[in-house]
Amino acid sequence: MGKQKSKPNVYLLFAIGTSLLVAAWLMRSFPLLIFAGLAPLFAISDHAEEDRIWNKLELVGVALAISLWAAHIFNTDFLIQSLIQCIALTLTFVTYTFARQNLGTRLGKLPLVLFWLALEYLFPKLRLHKEVSFLADSLVLKTDWYRWTIHTGYLGVSCWVLLTNLLFYHAIFQRGVQIPYLVLFCLAIAAPIVYSYTLDEQGIGRLAMESLYANSEASTVVYAERGEWIVRTATWVSGLIILFTIVKSNTRKK
Fold first, then answer.
1. In this structure, are residues 56 and 17 in contact, taking their beta carbons and an 8 Å threshold?
2. What confidence score (pLDDT) does residue 254 get?
3. Exposure winner among 14, 66, 82, 250, fewest CB in 10 A?
């Protein structure tokens, strides 16, 4: 039997993830690092043990708090709301860990992506969008990269960022360097950008999303009908996963 590879050092993952995320938020004119910054935090969640859901996830919370504060250029006026949002986002990691412990490691990391997207959907639905930073905001200076949001809605950009991070996690952190995943990672970044430049329409921006969920007129008829359908779908799927997890957890206790 081959020797099983040890997991990457959790503190190194924390340092790498925090550095990438802070740099991505501070360098919005060149935000490519956002496509990889969350991957080390995904890897930290692999350290959660069977009987300790919170094991090492406090590092995820600290990394998110620092990066969200960086999104506000470290303005102290936004420190409290950055901390509140980081707690909410860290709970998506806790929920994922709880689900993995009850449903098995075959669950993969996709539910973590869905839980994050579901939370981003709840922010505008609960009229909390003024207080938070969406992943999509990291690309606010690169609107030419996501004209395709006319099809997905603004938070389709958040989905894009999360999926590229998921691929980078598989390419680098899960079992060492995996070339096929690395190729997919590069394609996942490049293809939407290339497609965007083939479109003449302007994409959906944050203001259009806020306007829609404030019961105002949407920027397009299609967007008015669909809304943020990707994150809305993620919310429904997340609810089903959580419900099934709770049922499985109660069954195991009997």
1. no
2. 61
3. 250
pTM of the predicted model over 0.85:
yes
Boundaries of every domain in the chain: 10-253
Q: What is the DSSP string of the chain?
A: -PPPPPPPPHHHHHHHHHHHHHHHHH-TTS-GGGGTTTHHHHHHGGG-BTTBTTTTHHHHHHHHHHHHHHHTTT-GGGHHHHHHHHHHHHHHHHHHHHHHHHH-GGG-SHHHHHHHHHHHHHHHHTT-GGG---GGGGGTT-GGG-TTHHHH-TTHHHHHHHHHHHHHIIIIISSS--HHHHHHHHHHHHHHHHHHTT--S----HHHHHHHHTT---SSHHHHHH-SHHHHHHHHHHHHHHHHHHHHHHHHH-
Amino acid at 239: G
- 199-203 long-range contacts, CB within 8 A, separation 24+: 199/147, 199/148, 199/150, 201/147, 201/150, 202/143, 202/147, 202/150, 203/143, 203/146, 203/147, 203/148, 203/149, 203/150, 203/154
Determine the pLDDT at residue 47: 83
Nearest to 95 by CA among 129, 157, 47, 45: 45
CB-CB contact of 189 with 82 (8 Å)? no
| Residues 6 or more apart whose Cβ sits within 8 Å of residue 138 | 24, 25, 28, 31, 34, 71, 161
Predicted pLDDT at 49:
58
HSE-up of 106 (CA within 13 Å, CB side)?
1
Give CA–CA dist 128/156, Å, rounded: 18
